[in-house]
Amino acid sequence: MERIEKVVRQARAAFNSGRSRSLEFRIQQLKALERMVKEKEKEILAALHADLHKGGPNAYSHEILGVLAELALTMEKLPSWAAPQPVKKNLMTMRDEAYINFEPLGVVLIIGAWNYPFVLVMHPLIGAIAAGNAVVVKPSEVSENTAQLVADLLPQYLDRELYPVVTGGAPETTELLTQRFDHILYTGNSGVGKIVMAAAAKHLTPVTLELGGKNPCYIDKDCDLAVTCRRITWGKYTNCGQICIAPDYILCDPSIQSQVVENIKATLLEFYGEDVKSSPDYERIVNKRHFKRVVGLLEGQKIAHGGESDEASCFIAPTILTDVSPDSKVMEEEIFGPVLPIVTVKSVEEAIEFINRREKPLALYVFSNNKKLIRRVISETSSGGMTANDVLMHMMVPDLPFGGVGHSGMGAYHGRCSFETFSHRRTCLIRDLKLDVLNKMRYPPLSQERLDVTKFVFLKHCSDWRVGQFLSALLGAVKAVMAKIFSP
Amino acid sequence: MERIEKVVRQARAAFNSGRSRSLEFRIQQLKALERMVKEKEKEILAALHADLHKGGPNAYSHEILGVLAELALTMEKLPSWAAPQPVKKNLMTMRDEAYINFEPLGVVLIIGAWNYPFVLVMHPLIGAIAAGNAVVVKPSEVSENTAQLVADLLPQYLDQELYPVVTGGVPETTELLTQRFDHILYTGNTAVGKIVMAAAAKHLTPVTLELGGKSPCYIDKDCDLAVACRRITWGKYMNCGQTCIAPDYILCDPSIQSQVVENIKATLLVRRESLMLWELSPLQRRSEFLELWLLAGVLSTLFLLSPTILTDVSPDSKVMEEEIFGPVLPIVTVKSVEEAIEFINHREKPLALYVFSNNKKLIKRVISETSSGGVTGNDVIMHFFLSTLPFGGVGHSGMGAYHGKHSFETFSHRRACLIKDLKMEGTNKMRYPPVSQKKVDWTKFILLKRFNRGRIGLAVLALLGVVAAVMMKNHQSVLKRKALLVVLAVQRLGWPSGW
Description:
The structure is a homodimer.
Chain A (H helix, E strand, L loop, with lengths): L1 H15 L6 H17 L1 H12 L3 H27 L2 E2 L10 E8 L2 E5 L7 H12 L3 E5 L5 H14 L12 H9 L4 E5 L2 H12 L5 E4 L5 E4 L5 H13 L11 E4 L4 H16 L15 H9 L5 E4 L3 E2 L4 E2 L2 E4 L16 E6 L3 H9 L6 E5 L3 H10 L4 E4 L20 E2 L4 H7 L1 E8 L17 H16 L1 H22 L2
Parallel strand pairs in A: 3-4, 3-5, 5-6, 7-8, 7-14, 8-13, 12-13, 14-15
Antiparallel strand pairs in A: 1-2, 2-17, 6-16, 9-12, 10-11
C-alpha cells in the first residue's frame, strides 16, 4: 500500500517535471508503445489465450489490430488535435486572440476490465499519453496473465515514472482510489462505477465511466432475417458473449421468433461447426464465478438451442432462450455470456416502451429495411450509442465518441475524443493594454447613457448578425488602423 | 420534503411525455423566458438591489444583459446546434450514415449561487431547456429576494411541470440531492461541490461543478500600470469582490508595488459611490478588518465594505489561504515571473488567471507553465463574456463547462449513431469465424492502410464505391461479386487510398 502511494507520488513528480508535455515526447512514447505491440505480439496473444481462450487470429483482430490502428491515428493527428483552437469573436474582442488551449490534466488513473484486457487498458492509455499526462495503469486482476504481462512490458518500453503499472485486486484498487488523480477512466460494471465516482468526489476528480447494461436488439418483421441473424450471432457469441456492447437480448414479433432461432442455429453451425467446444474460434467464460452466474440464468428457461456447459473448462455452449418472460432473472442483469433470450413484442411501439422502462443501455440495435422505423426507434429511446442493421460496428468508427449514458456510463473516448477527455480545454483571451478608452462603457460611475451603449453593442450584435458582423469587421479594421497610426 | 419528491417525479413524467423535445417547443419556452426578463425587468432589478445592494445600471449590465444576449444567441443557433453531426467514415463504413445525435438527458438540476443570483440560474436554465430537458431550478436561499422572485416568475411564463423551482436552504438542497437526476450543474464552493458529486455518484449522475479558487493576477514590470490597474480595480471591486473570477490577489515585483497601490487608489477615487479607501499597515487594523470581511463574505447582504488593498502580504497568512470573495486585494511580491509561476503552481488550480504585460511571449509562457479554468491576458473577467469560449474550472475550481453552445452540449447526450443496411453481406466475410490468417491479413490491410492516405485516392475510392453500388443495383446478384472484387482488387494493388 505504501508502494501505491509512492508510485502515484513519483508519477506526479514526473509530471511536474514537465517532460511529458512536449509533442515530441508524447509521440516518442506512442512510437515506443507501437514497437512494444509489434515486437511482443506473441507474448500478448499467449496471455490473451491463457486468460480467455482467445484464438490467435481472433485475439489479433480484436485486441492488437485496434490498438495499432489507434496508435497510428493518434500519432498522425496529434499535432492538429493539440493545436490551440481559435474561436469566433464578438465586437468586444475583435482585436484580441481568443482560443481554446488543450492542456494535460496531470496524473490520470486507468482501471481496465478483464473481457478485453489488453485493448481496454491500451486504448485509454494512448489517449492519456497523447494528451500529455502521467498515467497510472491498473489492469484487471481477473485477466491475470494479461495484467502481469502489461506490468512487465510497459516499463521496458515507456518512461517508468510517468506510466507505472499497479497490479492487484480489490484492496489495491481501493487503496489507489484514495489517492488523488486528475482524471479517472474506469471500465467495468455500474456497481463499482458508483464506488469509483464516490471516491473521485473526495478529490473533485472528473471521471469517465464505461459501464454496461442490457443492450436490446429489435428485429423488425421487414428485414432480411438470414443476414440479420448472421450479424447478431457474430456480435453475440464473439468472446463468449463477454463484450460490453454485445446484443444482450432480442425483441421481435412472435411470428418470426422460430425463424430467428433457425437462422441463428444455421449461422452457429457455419461459424463453429458441429462440435463448438472443439472450435478454436470459440472462447470460454473468464472464470468459475462468472460461469456459475451465467449458467444460473438458464434456470426455468425454455432452451431452444444450446445449454450445454462444462465447469472444468468454463465452457458454455451458444444458447438461445425463447418466449422469455420480462420478469425473469435472465432479463434482470447484464448477461455477459453466450445466452441469448428472445422476448416477443407485438409492435415497435411495444419494443420502444419495453426498452424505455429499463435503464439506458450502452448500445442499442435495430434491424429493419425501413429507415423511418429505425429513425423512430432512435428518437424515442436513449442509449450510449447504436448501430442499425448490424451490431458492434459503431465502436469501429474512430470519430464516433464511445461511451454510455445514465447507468451505462458517462463521458466517452476513442480517437480524438480520448485526447479531449484527458485534456483540459482552457479558455484563453489575450488582449492588449491599448485603447482602454473603449472600455469606458463598463467602468463606474455607470450611467444610463453608458448602459445604453453596452446594450446596443451586446444585443444589436446578436439580432442583426450579418450586418453586425460586417460593421464589427469594419470597426475592427478601423480600430486596428487607428491603433497603428496613433500608438507611441 | 414529500413535495420535493413529487416535484421531481412530475418533472420526469413531463419529460417522458416527450413534449420538451421538439425544437419548436424549446424555442417557444426560450421566447417566453425572454419576455419574462423584459417585462419583469423592474422586479428583477429590485430583488437584486434588495439582495446585494446592486445599483440599477450595474445590475442590468451584469445580470440582465448577459441573459438576454444568451437567449438571443441560443434561439438563433439552436437549429444548427441540435442538428445531427456527421462524422468522417472509414472504409468499412463508407456506405453508411455515421453521425453524432444530440439528445436530451432527461431531468436536470440547477443549483444557483447568491453572488449573481439571477444570471447564475438563468444561464444554465437556457442551455438545459435548449437541449430539450426538464429542469429543476434551485436558486440560492442566501439571495432570498431573487430566489423568491424566480420561484414566482418562472411558473408564470414557462411550462410549470417541466421547469419547477424549489426554494429553501440546506435541508431542501440535501433532500433534492437524494433524488435522481440526469445531470446536475452546481455553482458554488469547493466543499459543497464534493458533497454534490458524492450525492450524484449514488445515481451515476454526471455533474458540472462551477467552483472557485484564488484567481491570481500577475503584473509584469513591463506594462502600462495605469491601464492595468484600472482594469484590475474594475474586476476586483465589482459586486464588492463577490465574483468567482475576480482577481483574488496580485503578484508583482516589489519595485512596482507602491505604484500599483497608487494607481488602484486613483481609479477607486473616480467611483463616486465608494466610501473610503483603507490602506492597511501590517498589524492590528488588518486583523480587525479581516474579521469583518470574513463575516461579510459569508452573509454577503448587509455590510458595505470599503475597497481595501493589503501590501507585503505573507503567502502563509489567512487571507492567502481561502478564496477572499470580498473587496480585499492582497499584494504578494515576487522577484520574477518564474517565482510567480512557482507560487501559482504550489496552490490549487484556480478558476481564472490573469497576466498583465506588454510582452506577449511572457504571457504565453505563464499560460503554458500554469493551469487554470480560463485566462485573460491584459484584462480581467473578459473571457467570461465571449460565449464561444467554454466557461468552467479545473481541479478544485471545477469540472465541465458551459455558456453558449457549450451549455447545449453539456446538457445533451452525444449519441453515436451508425446506420447500415443489410446489403453487401459479402464484405463482412472477413470478420466471421472460422477465422483464418488470410482473413486477419485482409482486416489488417484495410484498417491500417488508412493512414497512408491521399485525397485523390479518396475520391477514386468514393467513385468506385458509387460504381459498385450502381452496378449492384442494376445487375444484382450476377455482378455483385464482381463489383466487390473490383473494389477489393483495387485495394490490393495498393492504390493510395483514403482508408
